[in-house]
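Hello forum,

I keep getting stuck at the same step: I have a sequence, I want structure tokens, and every attempt I make locally crashes halfway through. Rather than fight my setup again tonight, could one of you with a working pipeline run this one for me? It's a single chain of 168 residues.
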Amino acid sequence: MTRTGLLRKIDFWISLLIILVTVFLAVGRVLDWYSLGFLVGPFRASHWLVIVGTTYIGIATPAFSILKNRPHAKYETLIQLHVIGNLSAVLLVTIHFASQVTRSTPARLETGLALYVVMLLLVVSGFMYRFRFLPRLSIGTNRLGHVGVALSFYMLIVIHILHGIGVL
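Reply #2:
Ran it on my machine without issues. Output:
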């Protein structure tokens, strides 16, 4: 895809906007412009954001992988939903992560930090794969890297949850 073609793709601009909003909200949380430390039921508001975000990723990503290979699949629509939906979920997870880092009694970040780093790698690899920022790499190589990071992400989610509930 040429640079001119890329600049005309609406999903590129929406994706970039979501990333910029994510950075703005994360910085705002770190600078204490707003707080999500209040309880909503048994959890803090920021925990509900991460629950929604990871549940979306946990369901929508495998659904995308299955649906894109179906006959008559509308791939362009599916990939746009995948990219924009997952970036929106990353926004929610980022707010949670920023809230955890800035708590007055700092949370233990061990598995959460690893999970967040892998999630950022997933976003970068997906962005580069979708918008072909590394045209020298074959699509297969880009895809393999993105899928490999996604599998690491899923494994870390399980480890993080088990760690959080005290099993590990």
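The two ends are 46 Å apart (CA to CA). If your local run keeps crashing, start a new thread with the error log.
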